[in-house]
Amino acid sequence: MTSSDQQMNSISYMEPKLYKAAEAGNINPFKDRLPTSLIELLTPQKNTILHVYFENQRRGWKSTDFVGQIIDMCPQLLLQANTKGDTPLHFAARYGRSNAVKVLIKCAKARPTDPESGVTEAKKMLRMTNEEQDTALHEAARHRRSNVEQQNHVELCLMVDKEKGQSVEDSQGIQEVFNNWRFKRHEENRKKVIDEILSNCESLEYCGSHGRTALHAAAMHGDHETARKILKKNASLTRRTDDDGWSPLHYAAFFSKFYDVSTVRVLLEYDVSAAYIVDSEKRTALHLAVVRGNSAAMKEIMNTCPTCCELVDSRGWNALHYAAITLKRALAAMYFPRLIPKFDILIYEKDNDGNTPLHLFAAFGSYSQKFLSSDCRHAYKKMCGLNKQNLSVDDILVGNFPEEKVIPSI
């Protein structure tokens, strides 16, 4: 036998007539087969006849007779996963087969409980994750074909798994609902599903993708109502950071709309110390609010935690350094001290290279000469002194310095 023959023999495939029968939901070719032979009917991706059935049904297909009959013949197919770890329930949820989700759960609940673990077949099936670490709940929450159907089979996935402590699915499920239901017309369904998830879980400490909790998701999407509900269950989540060191307040400060900082307010109401949490680059939520030019978020943070403006990032930049280089540069360095008086003391603070915010403003500002040359600002320029390259603000403004003496890049 040649190596190519051996390779062909190692590939699973389903006979065309059986594949077409599974695709059409035709039970007849499978009736006389033993359960073991049904398990062995696989495509190259190890999809079973149930996988094939779910991915090929027309939208709106309501019949579930084929599913129930196949499971009666071979219950093991309920938990049989393909090469990507997807079970038939993953497929049913992914393709929006709400009726099929119901049948699969019903069949699993009818199966005996595992005597060793004490876990029911239904719970085991719902908690199985694929290679992306997604459960069927994630797929159900992600499904976008029909939000009424989506809500229905999300609730079906939840209703059988109310055991305390099963929270990985809950945190990630809430994130999926936020990520995929972004429009106002879906708002009512989204809230219902999130409330269902929250009512069925005891803890929300587990993290989803990128180390984010459900509170991160609520903060990112500016949902202060959900944030408050989550915090009532676990207020300590205000201090949980993701893989980049961002707390929920970092997300709220960065993503909040300029006219609505309710989420920032709710997070600080539960924990003022959140304003002092720094990310992997030592940036606070205040730094990020400045980056976004969100003056409402800045004022909310500063009114609650006025001393957090003393914190600097890994380069020694305070909030006003960020204002000098990231905002509408013509007014940034001089406008925010008037808007937030506490910022006034930051004008003379130097970073690791000896640059004050005005040094950076002079170097990067589009209209620096115009806005820093008036008499009322001469005092600022003189008090800023020299940086570590012996450059004053005036040196930078007029370009009067050796070519090698430049301000470090952002």
UniProtKB/TrEMBL annotation:
InterPro entries: Ankyrin_rpt
Pfam family membership, one: Ank_2
Domain of life of the organism encoding this protein: Eukaryota
Matches recorded under PROSITE patterns: ANK_REP_REGION, ANK_REPEAT
ANK repeats: 84-106, 210-242
Any Gene Ontology CC annotation: plasma membrane
Keywords, alphabetical: ANK repeat, Repeat
UniProt keyword Nucleotide-binding, yes or no: no
PANTHER family registered for this protein in UniProt: ANKYRIN REPEAT-CONTAINING PROTEIN ITN1-LIKE ISOFORM X1 (PTHR24186:SF50), PROTEIN PHOSPHATASE 1 REGULATORY SUBUNIT (PTHR24186)
Protein name: Ankyrin repeat family protein
Organism: Populus tomentosa
